[in-house]
Amino acid sequence: MTRREFMAKASSFSALCVGLPQIARRVAPRGVVRAAKPFKYSGRIVPMRDIHTESKWSG
Amino acid sequence: MKVQCELCPKRCVVGPGQSGECRVRVNLDGVLRSVVYGFPCSMSVDDPVEKKPVFHFLPGTKILSLATVGCNLHCKNCQNWEISQTNPEDSRAFACPPEKVIALAQQYRRPSIAFTYTEPIVYYEYTFDTAILARESGIRNVLVTAGYVNEGPWRRLLQYVDAVRIDLKSMSEAFYRDVCSATLKPVQNALVVAKSMGVHVEVINLVIPTLNDKPEDLRNLSRWVAANLGRETPVHFSGFSPTYQMRHLPPTSLETLEAARDIAISEGLEYVYIGNRQSEKGENTYCPKCRKLLIQRVGYTVMQNRLADGRCPDCGRAIHGVWK
Predict the structure, then answer these.
(1) Cβ within 8 Å of A, B 130-189
(2) Which of A23, B148, B288, B306 sits at 20 to 30 Å (Cα–Cα) from B171?
(3) What is the ipTM of this complex?
């Protein structure tokens, strides 16, 4: 192996060593437990009402 | 960028613009957001604590109850499916940040707050922040949940929780998979962890004809509760009513519920109740030692409470629960 060939292989190998983990980190999803607050509610906002009666929902 | 929600055992991988299975935890620009934080779809200051049902926790008191839309389970028999199985964008809600919830509880002199109706785990951050403020204000926190949550976030939340009422829907993995889109083991773990952390635990089992009403099903469940949570753990057998995707099944008969209660008592459980059906004995609390009536209930109403400092007034036995 010539010196030039050796340098080419070594640089390819080191690029793989550096690049593969970076790609893996980008592809793998980031784990989250606590979610952030919303910007705004996506549904319809209504005035608070009917809190003085027993709820119709179970539980 | 994708994010993975690590709150519940589903561990949803959520792509940009998508939500997890619960519909309320959304990946917006690579950030997981709880889009229902501070926006309950239902609230009541007039629910009796017995409606949760929680029978051994401040009996006869009213509890401020709230829920947002969403649930991480998809039970075919869900009684609240209109709010649990809907998207936030299709729902109506009102703004009520944690501070306002506490102010309402104080205004109406409610000793406790229930996170209920849907699934407090999916609005975890709202539950968590409200529970901390409630604890600081001397208000108790009650979770009414299916207990389908990962242990880490569950333990962090339970530090601020006084009581949990957890659905143990069946002892069958097949039931959890086919009826609820979930698994049994995390629920059992949530129950054991809550008990080990000193939180008051009550268990409910909705008895559904042909699906989980066999005597061996009920016996297995009772044995598991007695062995893992203690014989003193209150257990509620609740009657099913045809609803949502299970309108083809009949309602649970009172006889089946009474048989369930008898089985649980024969397995050593000390406080076993019947719910969703009128039942004289199945609604009352009796002393496990002398069998005298301690708390008489009709529906959600406490007719008399004979407990004296949490003890049977006749034989002096300490009765498990939070009484003041």
Answers:
(1) 144, 150, 152-153
(2) B288
(3) 0.92
